[in-house]
Amino acid sequence: MLSKLMKQDYLSTRRLFFPSYLVFIIISVLNKILLEVAYTTAQPKDALEIISVIGLTLYVISIVALFVVTYVFICMHFYRTMSGEQGYLTHTLPVKTRTVINSKLFNSVIWQIGTFVLVMLSLLLLLAGELDGLDFQSIFSHYKHFVETNMYMSVGAFNVEIIITCFISLFSSSLMFYCSIAIGHLFNKHKVGGAVIAYIGIYMILQMLGTILMFMSGFLTIINGDAADFYYVYNRIMIYSIIMSIITTVIMYFVTEYIFRKRLNME
User: Fold this and answer.
1) CB-based contacts of 110-114 (< 8 A; 24+ apart in sequence)
2) What are the extents of the domains in the chain?
3) Percent of the chain, pLDDT > 70?
């Protein structure tokens, strides 16, 4: 049943995502063309350089906008199908509330990954032909040197921590929206306003917890620039952050599931 729900959620959300993806692809291709024309045209260069700078600025703005739009669409779809008018149909389906939430959560993860992959491909398109003399081995060598010199840790350990953090964030970012919408759902009126207030409250709590963890990890000991302590403090911060992210993500998941299962309010 989960696969059927995921398919239905995908069909419902693709009409939102595909047009934004198409616009971003067009902007990326046009920006690449402008850069190539600016580099290959002999005269006049000033106007073309100005146009290419404007194109790059729009490209950067479009990347930010694409990620923002991704989260907005994820939030809109969840609200509309769980707390809005379509919620009546959603909550009458002969499936568990947890299954419905899982379907929307997994789809949100897929769209986030899709957005990230699309941005990476556009960057490769932009840099194609501009990195003469550089290959993967040299890039990795520079990356390894930077990590070992500035982070005082092995590349493997650093990559594992980053990958775990990114993986958890794929779920926690969506669940933060879901939990806020669920809390706002408890209000008879002004559900959207309640969700916004809940989101701000959750964000502030997470920020306070993050700050507390940083000080607990010994953050003050590296302010003086003691390289010997940096590795250990950084690792403690990362490990504590990962643990905190897992705990808060699980809490937000079960709060969302409990409210829509036990405190359903479609008034």
Assistant:
1) 110/10, 111/13, 111/17, 111/70, 111/73, 111/74, 112/70, 112/74, 112/170, 112/173, 112/174, 113/170, 114/17, 114/21
2) 1-132, 134-267
3) 84
